[in-house]
Amino acid sequence: MQAIAIARATFRELSRRHTALVMLVLLPLAFYLARRDIPFSAVVVLALGLGWAVSTLALFSTVNALELDGRLRIAGFTTPAILMGRLFAVMLIGVALSLGYLVLVIVDQDVARLGGVALMMLCAIVVGAPLGMAIGLLLRRELEGALALLIFLATQFMTNPEKLLARCLPLWSVRAVADWTMDLGGASWLRDGLIHAAATLAVLLVVIAFTSAFRLRIHPPHEVLGDDQDVLGPVGFDRPR
Amino acid sequence: MPRLWLHGLLELCLLGLLEEQRDYGLGLTNRLAEAGLGFVPGGTIYPALARLEATGLVSSAREPSTSGPPRKYFELTMAGRHALDGRRTEWREFSRSIHAVIGTKELT
Amino acid sequence: MSNWPANFMHALSEHGLDSDSVQRLKSEALEQATDHGLPPERVFGPATAYADRLARALRSTTVPPLPASGKESVALRLAGVSKRYGRRQVLRDVSLEVGRGESVAVVGANGSGKSTLLQICAGTVKPTSGTVERAVHVGYVPQSGGTAPFLTPSEHFELFAAARADSRGRGIATGLQLAAALGWRPRAKQPVGQLSGGTRQKLNVVLGELSRPELLLLDEPYQGFDHGAYVDLWTQIDRWRDTGTAVLIVSHMLSELDRVDRIVELDAPEE
Q1: CA nearest to C155, candidates A13, B44, B1
Q2: Contact C43 B41 (CB under 8 A)
Q3: What distance in Å separates the CA atoms of residue A215 and residue B31, rounded to the nearest whole number?
Q4: Does residue C143 share a domain with residue C27?
Q5: Is residue C63 in some structural domain?
Q6: pTM of the model
Q7: How far is A211 from chain C (nearest CA, A)?
Q8: C177-221, pLDDT tens digit by residue?
């Protein structure tokens, strides 16, 4: 399938950038080490750092592929296949990273609800990757995109989660679920967190769908020339044999 | 002197020579010189033969030779004979037109 | 003294020939030189130049003919196409047709909108007015760029071939064959970012041709090509045309224009 080919190519590409990968591992780790002695904080910043790393990966992967994506469209790839394939590859890397961090938390911290930690990281990945992709599609440039991401994520660290501003930020779900995980809040925090993650994901997917439909558009011809059997299928569908 | 004109016609000449008799590279070089077409260097003849072989007009065979290393002999295939006939006709018509334009008496 | 046989073999393998063929060709060349009674550089000239000519001569036509298509013999038709960006008129009332088995060149001064025209043909840009009709299966070769620097050429072939069900799985084999027709042997593990500009453009050409399109659009595809590659490109274009593909090429290298079936000239940019 098309999306699988894109995912495989993206995964290969990203896994060759060794220095970047090392830094991706280090980023959340650095945050974690900074707050290691405060268990709640340590786990939160670890998950937020993971979200940051994944969204940066998604941003740069998207921006760097813009020219290639145009060619892939002409070659017959559908826009959903391109985007979902790329998103899947980035999320896969995020999941690989999170497994490592989970082990770290198990070994180094004493957390009762490990499932909660896993959920935090899942929220970080599931929101972070589309966030990076959406910014990449909107701004189309690395510097501008990185700065935009910085604004979102740095502010996330600094606001008080109860404030309204905090709830508007994409990774709020991580902090909400953290409250439940560390037993600082009731199950309502878990519920709110998961709802926020789902809603943010939905919004980001809509943004992605609209910008990509615009940016990666192939204007269909006024008429299709050729054998009859091709008239019905849009570019990218398998031709009937 | 004939080099400029020969450039486009080398393959035709090689096909013609091979129709007469199968031969190897040096033999063909000598026969071209004897026919008055001057010395055609190996760097030109062998690629031309390779092209004829790649397009199926000529086939080759390596044969041990008495006086040295094995030799690569070339000969026309059926397709080569057809191609030669066709090109002969084209050449006849073409040279007729040229004669007419430059005002020479036609050489039969 | 230069080592003619070694240089000859190296140059041949650079052209994509396998080691058995390289050995055989070297032996033949040395035998032929012995026949002539002269050292090989006297018989054949410089090893690299001779290898270049010989390798090119050996390349057989590997382009499969397109299935004879049903009714429509035109693969691209533009009628009255204009494009304006704000107040700048880039194209004005352009009409052209490219039939199957035809090659058409688009020429014009710099700034006359040649690249924009090609993008309109491909569908990535929408014309301000006019109509575009084209075949489904289109290949596009940009002037530069459009590749992934960290992937190898074979991985590009694999990716692009995955677009259509009928080319999936044969991408790498086809890609290597098409690369050989341009005198290029991609190295297995070498990422595209390390290739020279000319070689990257060869990759671009192959990617455009890869899935055997009905319509091939080329935008001055020869950036960075040496003379040999340029000759190979035009030979390849002739082959595509002879086997039924419709070819539209933007070119400012006017010396090849007698090889195409038709020429379309775009007006100079309006002041």
Answers
A1: A13
A2: yes
A3: 66
A4: no
A5: no
A6: 0.79
A7: 15
A8: 888 888 888 888 899 999 988 899 999 999 999 988 999 999 999
